[in-house]
Structures are given as C-alpha cells and as structure tokens.
Design brief:
The complex is a heterodimer. Chain A has one domain (2-153): Up-down Bundle (Ferritin). Helices cover 74% and strands 0% of the residues of chain A. The longest helix of chain A has 46 residues, at 2-47. The N and C termini of chain A lie far apart (67 Å). In chain A, α1 (2-47) runs antiparallel to α2 (59-76). Chain A is built from 5 helices and no strands. By secondary structure, chain B is mainly α. Chain B has a single domain, classed as Up-down Bundle (Ferritin). Chain B is built from 5 helices and no strands. The chains are: A mainly alpha, B mainly alpha. Chains A and B meet through α2, α4 and α5 of A and α1, α3, α4 and α5 of B.
C-alpha cells in the first residue's frame, strides 16, 4: 500500500512538473510583453505634463493610471522594473514633450496616441493571461478613445485610421 | 497566486459554459457563443442610432459594419448569427452612448476567449467601439477606458 502511494505520488510529481514549467514560462512571456508598455505609458505620463489645448482629456493622469495598472500586473508575476526617468522618453513621447506650440503639441499627441494604440493592439494579440489581457485591452480602448477625441479637437476625422 | 487562480477560474468557466444548453441541441462552440453576445451589443448600438444624421449616422454605420464582421465570424466558427436577438423597441439616440460603452465592455471581456484571427478581430472591435464611445460620450460623463 505504501509503495503504491509512493509510486502514485512520484508519477503525479513527474506529470505536474512539466505543466507547471510551461505555465510559468507562459506567465513570464506575458510579463515580457507588458514590460515595454509600462515604459511607454510612463513616458507618455511625463510627456503630457505640459499644457494641452482646452478640451483635451487629462492625458498625463490617464497615462499614469495605465502605467500603474500594468505595474500591478507585472508585480503580481513577481517581477519589477525601475520607474522611467525623464531623459528616457521614446521618440514619440519626446516629440510631445519637445513641441513648442499648442498646435504642434496636439499633433504630436495624436501621433503618440496612435503609436500607443498600435503597441497595445500588438500586445493584446499575444497575451494569454486573462487578467493581464483585460487590463491591456482596457488600455487599448483608452488610447482609441483619446486618439478619436484629440483628432476631433484638431478638426480632423475622429475615425480616420490611426496609421 | 492570484494570477494562477484567475487562470484556473477562467478554465473552470470554460468548462461550465461548455456544459450549458439543451441536451437535444448541441451548444454553439465557445468563441461563437461569446461573439453572439458581442453581436447583440453592436446591433443594439446600431439600432439606437438608426435614422440619425451626421456623426451619429457614421457611428451607426461603423457599428453595423462591426456587426456584419461578427456575424461572418460566428458563422465561420460554427454558430448561427440569427441567434443574436434584434432590438424590438423604438430607436433612442439618447441611449446610444450607454450602448456604445456596453458594446465596448463586451468586446474587452470577450478577448480572453478568442484566439488567432478571432483575437485580431476582437482587438479591432475594441478599438472601433472605443472611438465610437468617445465621440458619443459627453465630457461631463466618466471617461471610459481607464482600468479600475
């Protein structure tokens, strides 16, 4: 009886080990996918700190909330990443931060939102963990909305393709 | 732990859903079932805006287009798009913003159950419905699309 139990336990452990390893690798991959998105959202939060034309949504706050939500998911995977610094902005965020007129700033913001939308869409296609996928999809929706609102504010077609 | 638990819950939910339905009639495959809910939401949005003009008319056309794409995908996935109920109340443009947000929530919630080309379709539906919700929503209302 004892030998049988030991054999069963051993077999169970052997069967469980590969599936646990596969699940861990899948979760790790999900973390790899959202890690660059955290940096993109933090860069947007920094770039949007300056004034935007009246009527624009509070973009800096939304970007910071997106980054925080992604960070929470990332930390739930047991991982961490240092906050982005102001001199580490990606090119699209740099163009927003460096725009010298409200009109140029609005145009750069529309381009940044289109870029973030594309990045989130690419992530959504690859993510497998349901919670992370829902969070990223919600952020994708946020950027689609912000892109439409900013385009309308600029007198452009709000439904024009973002790319 | 939370992540693993949510994975298990999702898997459990899929098993429960697979077991739903009439014994005499095979339930539609899970992706088709999920997309039927999305189709109902899009049809409701397009319906509320039927007979409108300008930007609202464009939103109605965009929503109808999403509904057509969903109906094709449902049929290709082995489901019957006619199972998605058509609205039977008079159109109410004032309800369109809420309908758009409901459609958006449906599309976001459906994504974990869709894979491959259906996941790509789902991502497009999220982006499209989100833009529509944005132009239909008054500034004073809560801005949708921010994780809670």
């Amino acid at each position: 009886m004892r030998r049988r139990e030991l054999l069963l336990a051993g077999t169970g452990a052997l069967l469980a080990r590969p599936s646990a390893a596969v699940a861990a690798a899948a979760l790790d991959r999900n973390g790899d996918i959202i890690k660059p998105l955290i940096a993109r959202e933090e860069a947007a939060a920094i770039a949007y700190r300056g004034a935007l034309p009246a009527g624009a949504p509070p973009l800096a706050r939304f970007a910071a909330e997106h980054a925080a939500a992604l960070r929470t998911e990332f930390q739930a995977l047991g991982r961490g990443v240092a906050p982005l610094k102001a001199d580490q902005l990606d090119p699209a965020a740099q163009r927003v931060a460096g725009a010298t007129t409200p009109r140029a700033r609005l145009a750069a913001a529309i381009a940044l939102e289109a870029d973030l939308l594309t990045a989130c869409r690419a992530a959504v296609l690859e993510l497998t963990e349901p919670g992370i996928l829902r969070t990223t999809a919600t952020i994708l929706a946020g950027h689609a909305q912000q892109h439409a609102l900013l385009a309308r504010l600029a007198g452009r077609d709000p439904f024009a393709p973002s790319r | 732990m939370v992540t693993r638990r949510s994975l298990l819950l999702a898997a459990g939910g899929a098993v429960v859903l697979a077991g739903c339905g009439n014994d005499d009639e095979a339930p539609p495959p899970v992706p088709a079932h999920v997309m039927l809910g999305q189709l109902v939401a899009e049809r409701a949005l397009a319906h509320e805006l039927s007979g409108t003009s300008g930007l609202r008319r464009r939103v109605a056309a965009r929503s109808s287009d999403r509904a057509r794409r969903l109906a094709s995908a449902i049929a290709a996935a082995g489901g019957d798009p006619h199972e998605a109920a058509e609205p039977d109340s008079p159109p109410d443009p004032g309800a369109a913003a809420a309908r758009a947000r409901a459609a958006l929530e449906r599309h976001v919630g459906a994504l974990p159950r869709l894979s491959g080309s259906l996941r790509a379709l789902g991502a497009d539906l999220v982006a499209g419905a989100a833009a529509d919700a944005a132009v239909l929503t008054r500034a004073a209302e809560a801005f949708p699309g921010t994780p809670r």
